[in-house]
Amino acid sequence: MPATIRERVRALSAFETVKTLLFVYVVFTQSLKAQRHLRARGFRQTFSDFWTWLCQRVIFLALRLPAAKQKVDSQLGEAALKIENSLVPKGPDVVRHLSLPAEGRSPEWILPEMDKMDGEAVKHTNWKGGRMSGAVYHGGEDMQQVIVDAFRKYCVSNPLHPDAFPAVRKMEAEIVAMCLRMYNNPTGAGTTTSGGTESIIMAVKTHRDWARAVKGITEPEMVVPISAHAAFDKAAAYLKIKLHSIPVDPETRKVNVSRMRRAINSNTIMIVGSAINFPDGNMDDIPALSKLAKRYNIGLHVDCCLGSFIMPFLDRAGYPCDVFDFRLEGVTSISCDTHKVKGNVLSFLHLNWTDLDAFCLHFGGVYIVRIRTKGGLYGSPSMAGSRPGALIAGTWAAMQYMGQDGYLESCKNIVGSAQKIVRAIREEIPELYVLGDPPASCVAFAARDKGGLNILAVGDKMSERGWHLNGLQKPAAVHIAVTRLTVPVVDQFIADLKDCVREVKVLSSSMSSEEKGEEGNMVALYGLGNSSAVGPAMVEKMVTAFLDALYKA
Ligand SMILES: *Cc1c(COP(=O)(O)O)cnc(C)c1O
Ligand SMILES: *[C@@H]1O[C@H](CO)[C@@H](O)[C@H](O)[C@H]1NC(C)=O
Ligand SMILES: *[C@@H]1O[C@H](CO)[C@@H](O)[C@H](O)[C@H]1NC(C)=O
């Protein structure tokens, strides 16, 4: 039948047209993607990324060959055992509690048992002596007492139930209000979270949701300095966001702003700057990043986790630095930690709500609002559901105890000590140089000439003297985050550093390569390189209003 044949031919050609269109669409979107990628990273970077990836695949496949696999497994096992041995106390007198005791223990048993466990650890690292960098941010015994008393008072409180714990709700709202003023945005909004990482993830989520609602971006990307905290990689992985890592200027250690600009495209939701960054304590050019954010109408998150209660006091302490907070119009969110200065675990996410209000107030923003068919309404401000109210009380107490004068004094001492270390290295230790020009509490140093002094070996020598510092890669360097505990021992630090540099120099010139094989931890580790009558929309608004009210101070 000619008619049915004609129909079939027509159907076929229609099918061909659809296929061609689909093909063109795929080629078009893919080449657009490739072009964005190339623009952001450049040909050389793209090629070197591809090369690295290829090498890794080849090595990965080679390591699956039986002979290689056996060797790798045994070496991995060895390394794992070494690490285990250094962390887990072993021996006949170590009692392990692997199941619930059949009968409850007495308080007289519990505390001494904890002391016993600590006894093992204290042998390794004595943080009270101020020699441990970046792990414990302690504010002194008196402050500790204030925090512990607050913890005890609000031990079982939970801010998920503000009706049951009105004081905790009030304190949390006040903490946020105090921090917002500190960062020059008294009309802004914020929440407390479990720490810097959660704050950063919440900030990225808010920008992603804002970009989707306001700009229709479904394949979000963000542009982040290589020196930014790993929390951004976490956020990118959790929230399915493509992350472009931008190199820093080798001299100033600030992110290369022109490279940053090149990586911005129509899918970019936000850029990031640190004040200060973790690896070497330097601050990105936030005013320039703010201009970029304004120009492209994207978000700018400033990570102040490490700089938290130091950066806002720098000017008054006599250490002027660039503006980095909400005074800059492009800054849309800031994360800040309280525990990095005073031994507490709470962090803040500050959003410039005015900028994001189209989204945040009407769509929920960082808040999650759930309308369940069973169980009623549920609203919570961040990733956690139940939260420990004790931490909020402790933070509030600590902030009241410190006051502006306390933080200012603390800032002067901490930054003064860090500057002293910087000066000593620049003027008295010619073998070393300071990375960039760190404005605040954290200083990183590296060996001057390549192939000369092994800085990581210096770090290991410092560990032998009880200093617990962090090793860095690219370039190999060692950093110290100065805290209030370090202040009284800063001269000792400088003297020890000089000694260790001398020791490593002598050792490396007299030692055979065989002996050099006996590497310390730092060398070994870093050297390797909805149902409701009023309707869902109304309910959502009500719950959002409820959540907003929680933060009214
Ligand atoms: C510590 C830190 C973070 C993350 O803080 P956590 O509380 O450890 O999650 C983020 N950024 C910088 C610069 C930091 O130093
Ligand atoms: C917040 O963003 C708005 C809009 O961009 C801006 O006008 C304001 O200056 C920013 N900063 C503060 C502190 O509100
Ligand atoms: C930033 O990167 C560009 C391109 O790679 C380079 O030409 C420029 O010199 C860099 N600027 C700084 C300050 O490093």
UniProtKB/TrEMBL annotation:
InterPro entries: GrpII_AminoAcid_Decarb, PyrdxlP-dep_de-COase, PyrdxlP-dep_Trfase, PyrdxlP-dep_Trfase_major, PyrdxlP-dep_Trfase_small. It is found in: Endoplasmic reticulum membrane. SUPFAM superfamilies: PLP-dependent transferases. The modification N6-(pyridoxal phosphate)lysine is found at residue 340. Pathway: Sphingolipid metabolism; Lipid metabolism; sphingolipid metabolism. One of its GO terms (biological process) is carboxylic acid metabolic process. This is sphinganine-1-phosphate aldolase. It comes from Sanghuangporus baumii.
